[in-house]
Amino acid sequence: MAQHDFKVTTQWQGGRESVGQLKGDILEEQVSIPSGLGGKGVGTNPDEMLVAAASTCYIISLAAVLERSGFNDIQITQQSIGRASLDKGKFKMVEITHYPDIQIDEAQLPKLKDKLSKLLQLADRNCMISNAIRGNVEVNIEPSLQN
C-alpha cells in the first residue's frame, strides 16, 4: 500500500478574535474565524478550506476520469458550495454541492451525455476528500454541459 504524508504547521496566539498562520509545502495563509461567525474574517478559515479541498479534489478526479474515458479538449469550471448548520450549539458542515460546468467539443457531446452520470459518480468515488467525508457530509454534483 502506497502512503503519502501531507504536512502543515499552524500557529495561533490569543483567543477566538485572533488571526493565526497556516503553512504547508506550498500553501501559506492567515486563518481566522469568518466574520459572519463573529471572528476577524482575515485570510481563510477551516470551513472554506474544507470546501476548497473537496472542490479541487473533485475537479481533478473528474478531469482524470473524463480523460481516461477518451474525452479530450475539455475545460471544467466549477463552483462548490458548502452548507453548514448549527445543531445543538455546534456547527457542522452538512453538505457540499459541486457545480461543474464542462465545456467539450460538440462532436463529443452526445457520447458524454450518455456516460455523464456514471463518470460523475466515478470521479466522486476516486476523490480522496469525498471518501474522507463520506457518511458525515452529503456531497452533491449538479453538472452542466457546454460546447
Automatic annotation (TrEMBL):
It comes from the Bacteria. InterPro entries: KH_dom-like_a/b, OsmC-like_firmicutes, OsmC/Ohr_fam, OsmC/Ohrsf, OsmC_Ohr_Peroxiredoxin. SUPFAM superfamilies: OsmC-like. It holds the Pfam family OsmC. This is Peroxiredoxin. It comes from Staphylococcus auricularis.
